Amino acid sequence: VTRIIIDTDPGVDDAAAIWLALASPEIELLGVTTVAGNVPLEATYANACRIVGLSGRADVPVMAGARGPLLRDQVFGKYAAIGAFPKALVPDSGMTSSDENAVAFIARTARGAAREGRPVTICAIGPLTNVAMALRLHPEVAQGIERIVVMGGAFRALGHRTPWAEFNVYADPHAAQIVLGSGVPITMFPLDVTLQALFTATHIEELREQGGAPGCALARLLTEFDRSDPEKYGRPGGPLHDPMTIAWLVAPELFSGRRAAVGVQVGGSTSGHTYADFNDSQARTTVMTDVNEPGYIALVVDRIAALGAA
Ligand code: BDR
Ligand code: CA
């Protein structure tokens, strides 16, 4: 069993990642730490509480962390104005959660993991502010982190947020630089691989028909916040970026990647751009390059549909 912390800014695809983790016996979710990103911190925290609460897992703590990026001006996602998910889409289970700060939780958990000799994995699926702060404030926590699995960056693919940059790196490039330079082994899922798998109306129907409460909520979210863009993606359907980090821990055979030294452009008109040297065999970062699309989609849909289903 892989013990993980999910650091997140929910976010529709973040919700799918959290539900996939909760639906996977291969994974023990130690806590969910939230960061400002797609929406402001209050909303990512409220959403994370509701996502976890809807799966009936009040034992999994949710913590709020950084309210904004380390240095740059704050940017939010496309649906920032909506704030937290409408309750008609993701009902509020009334779950109250921990008031420990996210950065303190990451540090405390990693320190404990180092002491026990059972390092934890961090799945970072929002801007990297919390993870960078934990590593900067408490460098010794690196010893308790087995690996950081990051959804972020874009190499050959066009960036989403700007032609140059993917959102999570764009929103806090300094934090991304700190995490990538930390020496902790990193597996990175850039847009190049996440855009290879598109979820269509058929998959949404499957979630709705067979789903327990989380599957039905995900179907409502995917319908309300339509992610498809045939012009951009060349075919019907929309991506779910963040669950790839979890799917890789559960079924690594669905993916392939290559070691690379990764850098981040910080500042200027191309801020947030990531670049990779695939010839550096000493590199500690693995950049994922390919996914088995049907295998990935089936894993996400089947497991989330089964979560809490009768
Ligand atoms: C990333 O940005 C966010 O909008 C998504 O949740 C994902 O983490 C994709 O660029
Ligand atoms: Ca996210």
UniProtKB/TrEMBL annotation:
One MF annotation (Gene Ontology) recorded for this entry: purine nucleosidase activity
Keywords: Glycosidase, Hydrolase
Gene Ontology CC terms, in alphabetical order: cytosol
Pfam families reported in the protein's UniProt record: IU_nuc_hydro (PF01156)
Domain Inosine/uridine-preferring nucleoside hydrolase: 4-296
InterPro entries associated with the record: Inosine/uridine_hydrolase_dom, IUNH, Ribo_hydro-like
Any one GO BP annotation for this protein: purine nucleoside catabolic process
Keyword Transit peptide belongs to the record: no
Protein name, as recorded: Putative nucleoside hydrolase
